[in-house]
Amino acid sequence: MKYQRVISLTALLSFIILTISSGVLYFLPDRRYTSWGDWSFLGLDKAQWDNIHITIGILFIVVIIWHIYYNWKPIKTYLKVKKDLKIFTKEFNLSLLIVTIFMIGTITMTFPIKIFVNLGNGIKSKNAYSMPNPPFEYAQEARFKDFCTILNIDTNSALKKLKNSNIKVVSKSQKIMDIAKSNHTSSQKIYEIIKSNKTSSLPNSLPIGLAQRTLATLNSEYGLNISKAISYLKNQGIEINKDSKFKRVANRYNLHPAELYAMILASQKL
What we know:
By secondary structure, this protein is an all-alpha fold. It has helices spanning 3-27, 31-34, 46-70, 72-78, 90-108, 113-130, 144-150, 155-164, 176-182, 187-194, 215-222, 226-235, 246-252, 257-268; strands at residues 80-81, 84-85. The chain has a two-stranded antiparallel ribbon with strand order 1-2. Helix 1 (3-27) runs antiparallel to helix 3 and helix 12 packs across helix 14. The N and C termini lie far apart (78 Å).
């Protein structure tokens, strides 16, 4: 067994897996979106990709340390100037400068590093908008009884509907995500089955992904009265239609999306 080959091949395979998992982390939004629906890539959900990125990252670090140990002699030659060992060689200084530029550029969000960061954040936002949104943040991690209480859903009626749909709930204290997993479905599907027992109303807290939402999406999810909202906003000097995205309307009138949402909440109480 040639261990140096094992080290090199392990490093190569770890690098390939880290490249794939980095792509998943770069393009996909937070788990509060991905774990609500039934998203997966190569048969793995976002949480599993997160864990793979961490564990393979640790493996990669261990292998690189092992690789340095076996290749210490050639590394020392990289650090020598006229046969004298010197850490801060021209080559080392250039390498250090490159890494430092990327680190500081990321922290301070300077050009051109911020282009890559903003691009990734923009893609994540679009992907988040295209994915099914939970009724509140990390809803899938709520216990069944708490989930129903927060959303004004009758717990017993919800249990009956799930039973009729062949969804088994072991306990009211079971998390929504655990119910979904044990029944080979998604948290979103669980909600779709029981939400007919929900009293439609806009939440007082900001819905997830509000900036990319429209009056039409709020109508479908919370029973928003669109005509009342449009009329109220028009009286406030704000023109909006059912398909206008909150962020665009808010920017047009120098408002924060939260301010615009507060007006819509007020419109529903008239």
